[in-house]
Sequence to fold (109 residues):
Amino acid sequence: MASIPAQFTNVTAVTKANVYFDGKVVSHSILFPDASKKTLGLIYPGKFHFGTDKAERMEIVAGACTVKLDGQVATNDYAAGTCFEVPAKSGFDIEVKSGICEYICSFLG
Fold:
């Protein structure tokens, strides 16, 4: 797996935050010259469900989380430096047990 980026250059940062679950999940959109988009976010302790339109890759920058993809029984733990992918038109449960989980979400395809 490629290393998780520490910074992005030549991008546009959207200043208005995406706020979910009463502020327990917050992200900012980053727009790239090739028209692709990522979000950089924080997840505070709790358990949350997200639906996907496009396929996504979630890279964990700091902290840790437990994830269960829709349609699966098993959960997987992810720590800083790891990632997981979510198929399009599906979803996932994500739980942060303590601390803050920082992530980069890339929209695929």
